[in-house]
Write a structure and sequence with these properties.
CATH architecture: Beta Barrel
CATH class: Mainly Beta
CATH topology: M1 Pyruvate Kinase, Domain 3
Helix content: 10-25%
Order of helices and strands: EEEHEEEHHEEE
Strand order of the largest sheet: 4-3-7-6-5-9
Strand content: 25-35%
Oligomer: single chain
Number of helices: 3
Distance between the termini: 32 Å
Low-confidence stretches: none
Mean pLDDT: 94
């Protein structure tokens, strides 16, 4: 997971240049405030790249948002479900996997409805699904 200042989201494909494209899990999203709270509970300094999510958002809750639509800049992502933490989390820090399990702490995943370039600092908001 390499930090980037921008990315291109492609409708029904995912992130341009990403190895995992198509399907329902085109984009994984992590909530910055939740990540920081989990790290604090574990008394650990863990780089967010350890979560292996594609995007980190701030100022918006991801929990229980299945079927909702998230707008980031001009792109829109349909949330399909909760991202379950895998065994790699405990290889990063013991107890991280369990700490990410409750209440969507591991983030969300979805597919790109409308593509476009997104950039760090873009507005993130829940929008109506006009489909």
């Amino acid at each position: 997971m390499d930090p980037r200042q921008s990315a291109i989201l492609e409708a029904m494909q995912g992130i341009a240049g990403n190895a995992d494209r198509g399907g329902w899990r085109q984009v994984t999203i992590l909530e910055k405030e939740v990540w920081e709270a989990v790290a604090a509970r574990l008394r650990a300094s863990i780089d967010p790249s350890a979560r292996r999510a594609n995007l980190m958002v701030s100022g918006i809750r991801l929990a229980h948002t299945r079927d909702d639509v998230l707008a980031i800049g001009g792109a829109r992502i349909k949330i399909v479900g909760e991202t379950a933490p895998c065994r790699l989390m405990d290889e990063t820090h013991q107890g991280l996997r369990a700490a990410l399990r409750p209440d969507w702490n591991g983030g969300a995943f979805g597919y790109v409805i409308d593509g476009g370039e997104i950039t760090v600092g873009d507005e993130v908001a829940w929008v109506e699904d006009d489909a």
